[in-house]
Structures are given as C-alpha cells and as structure tokens.
Design the sequence.
C-alpha cells in the first residue's frame, strides 16, 4: 500500500531537502547524530559527517556506552582479545546498524561498532567532561585529533593520561581542573611535539611537573591558573619556552619577584596574567621589562604594586589592555601617558587614586573602556577623563566625591559613550536626561547600590 502522504504531494522525512535535514541534526547531540541519524541511509550518513566535524565534537553522549561501569564485568578491559576481535568483525562487515545509546549491557561488538563509527568521521576536535581513564584510553586511539578538551573531572588519573602520547597530531590540550593529575602524569605529554596550547589550570602540579612542560618547545600558550603549588624554581622551566606568546599565572600565590626573572626571558609574550599573585612588587615588574611585545597585562589584586611599578608599566608601549583593579597602593596613573595604544584600563578599587593622579590620562587617546570605580576623584578628575573622546564604556561607581548635579557637562565630549556607571544618589533625573542628550549613542546609565538602570527610552518617558 502506498504512503498516503504522497497522494497530496507531501514528502517523507527521508526525502526532505538536505539543508533541512542538516538543520535538524544540528539540534541533536553528537551521540544521536552518529549512532542514530547516520544509520538511516547513505545520504543521512553523508550529512551527519558534516555535522560532527564542526568544532568541537562532544563525546559526553557516548559515556554510558563506553564507561566501564555500564559493561558487564567479564567485558572489562576494553582492549582485551575479545574487543580486538570485535573490532575486526565490525571492520569486515558491509553494514553496521546503529546501536541505541541506552543499551543496558553493551558487549564488545557494540562498543567496537560505536568507536569505529566515531573513527570513520576522522574527528579532529573533541571535548568531554567527567572523562575517566577507560574513556580516555579510547579517545587516545583517535590519532587525527588536533584539539582535545577533557575538563572538570576527578575521574581522569595519571594512569589514563599515559596514553596521551599516541596523539602525535595534537595542537591543543585542555586538562582544566583535572584534579587527580599529578607531576608524574605529565611525562607522556613530552611526546606531543606539535602541541601549541596547553591548559593545566586547576591541576595539582608543582615545579617537578613543569620539567616536562618545559620540553614542549613549540608551545605558544600556557595556562597555569590556580596551580598554587608552583614556586619560583618551577618557573625556570617555563622560562625555556621561548616561543610562548600567552602565559596565565593567575592565583599562583607562591610566585615572587625572583620568579619573574624567568618570565622576563619570554620575549615573545603578548599576553601575561599575574592577577592574584600577591607577593609580586614593583621590583618584580622591572624584571619584565624585556617583554617589549606585551599587549595585555593583568595585575589585578597585586596589592604591593604601587606608583614605582607604574613607571615600569609605562615602558610597555604596545599595551592595549591593562588591568590593575584592587592594586590598593596605587595613587597615580600619570606614568601611563606613554601608552598611546591602550584601549582598556581597569583600576576598580584603587581608592588612593586622586585628581592629581589623572592629570595625564587624556593622553591615552585610544581608550574605549575605563573603570575608575572607587577612586577618590572629584569633578576635577572627571574633567580630565572628559578628554577621552573615544570612550564607549565608563564606570565610576563608588567615586563618592563626584557630584553630577550641575556637573554633568563634564561628559559632553563623550559622544561615543554606550554605557555609563555612576555613583549612587549623586545624579538626579534631570542629570540623567542631560547626559543622554549630550551622549547620543548612550544606551544605559547604571546608578550604584541598586538604585536601578536608566535606559534611554526610560529617561524619555520620565
């Protein structure tokens, strides 16, 4: 009997246009696309291939198939002889039907079926959460991988990581918050000679582990955020990575000025994050002066950085982004007048900065994002800020000495301003209306301490 839909000129699901099928597949998880949709027909398999090759491929939907806990005990040991035989059987088969993800007792043949299908897609970019050692061992058979993200897990250990050396094409490895990885587990990564990007943030490694990292001479980016066991001695291994352009040491609380001598050897650095490194002082910044290519520097919450350190920062003339929030001993920004390319400056919580410390800020002519929240500036300081005609985002919350009543005209030159954050109860409705009139591109005024946001439309209504 013929399909009644065809009598009315309707198409079946299989006959739908390829772009419609592709859109439907993009709404599904990768596991469903690979295990279900690709098994419908050859055409669907071809479309599915284009879907799962997008970056990255998420393995998480396969975990209930691949995890050791879901496999009967007699099938434990994924790479035993029975599994290898099953793989050979699948490879020899002309057609391999798809397997439902919820299969309660997958045998080696079923597992091999799923893995082979993944491998046939030639996956190059893969991401997964809560990966254990067994799954990671399987992942390391995907020898065309260029990007691998295995993040936020306490199930991956050194035993699983020992297989990572098989991924010789890997360019990017993210092991963020893989908390059970230790120094010993990092030895296999020395085989990843093409690795460019390594993220070990939140891992419990020490300087001993950094010996292996120091052998990855092609690294361009290294993230050690929150690795609070790393000391100055460990940084000497990082100093060997002369190709690094990006280094994050946020929260490495044992690092001192001495350790920055090793960082100063990385003359190709363009981005450096030292936020929350509370032992760094002005002297340490002098050790960074060889970094002539720095464009992004984060020293937030480095309480010992003061005005002397600002004279060193003023020599990084390529800087476009400078973060100094909660550097509580700063009193002046005069030294940064030489930073002509600076577009983002955030010094929130630096309460000792006064009007005299802002005299030359107008010379940073490229500034588009400025946060002076909490500064002890008055309307005089606001006049200096008024020279920054390219500003899009200006934040002044907590600047309790600014009086907007009658002084809103100081913002008249900010014709391109989109967002304004001002102290609470110092601006009236009339002031807000005047500011919107002077700044035609302004979208929102935020008034501190929960007094609300004034949008342009709301101000018109008022």
Sequence:
């Amino acid at each position: 009997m013929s399909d009644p839909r065809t009598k009315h000129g309707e198409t079946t699901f299989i006959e739908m246009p390829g772009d419609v099928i592709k859109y439907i597949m993009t709404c599904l998880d990768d596991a469903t696309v690979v295990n279900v949709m690709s098994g419908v027909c050859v055409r669907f398999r071809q479309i599915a291939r284009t879907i799962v090759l997008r970056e990255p491929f998420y393995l998480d939907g396969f975990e209930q198939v691949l995890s050791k806990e879901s496999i009967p005990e007699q099938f434990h040991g994924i790479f035993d002889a029975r599994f290898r035989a099953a793989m050979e059987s699948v490879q020899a088969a002309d057609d391999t039907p798809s397997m439902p993800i919820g299969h309660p007792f997958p045998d080696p043949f079923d597992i091999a079926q799923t893995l082979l299908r993944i491998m046939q897609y030639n996956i190059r970019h893969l991401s997964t959460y809560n990966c254990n050692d067994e799954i990671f061992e399987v992942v390391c058979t995907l020898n065309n991988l260029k990007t691998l993200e295995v993040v936020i897990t306490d199930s991956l250990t050194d035993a699983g990581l020992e297989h990572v050396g098989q991924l010789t094409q890997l360019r990017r490895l993210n092991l963020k918050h893989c908390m059970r990885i230790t120094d010993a587990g990092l030895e296999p990564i020395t085989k990843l000679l093409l690795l460019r990007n390594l993220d070990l943030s939140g891992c419990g490694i020490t300087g001993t582990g950094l010996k292996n990292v120091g052998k990855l001479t092609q690294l361009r980016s290294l993230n050690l955020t929150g690795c609070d066991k790393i000391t100055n001695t460990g940084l000497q291994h990082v100093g060997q990575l002369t190709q690094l352009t990006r280094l994050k040491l946020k929260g490495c609380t044992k690092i001192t000025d001495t350790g920055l001598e090793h960082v100063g050897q990385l003359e190709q650095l363009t981005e450096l994050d030292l936020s929350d490194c509370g032992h760094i002082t002005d002297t340490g910044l002098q050790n960074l002066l060889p970094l002539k290519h720095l464009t992004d520097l984060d020293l937030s919450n480095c309480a010992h950085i003061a005005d002397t350190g600002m004279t060193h920062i003023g020599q990084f003339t390529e800087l476009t982004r400078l973060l100094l929030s909660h550097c509580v001993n700063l009193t002046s920004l005069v030294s940064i007048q030489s930073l002509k390319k600076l577009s983002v400056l955030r010094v929130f919580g630096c309460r000792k900065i006064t009007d005299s410390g802002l005299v030359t800020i107008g010379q940073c002519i490229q500034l588009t994002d400025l946060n002076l929240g909490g500064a002890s500036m008055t309307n005089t300081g606001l006049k200096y800020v008024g020279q920054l005609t390219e500003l899009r985002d200006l934040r002044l919350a907590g600047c309790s000495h600014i009086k907007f009543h009658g002084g809103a005209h100081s913002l008249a030159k900010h014709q391109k301003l989109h967002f304004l954050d001002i102290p609470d109860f110092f601006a009236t409705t009339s002031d807000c209306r005047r500011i919107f009139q002077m700044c035609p591109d302004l979208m929102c005024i935020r008034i501190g301490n929960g007094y609300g946001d004034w949008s342009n439309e709301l101000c018109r209504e008022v």
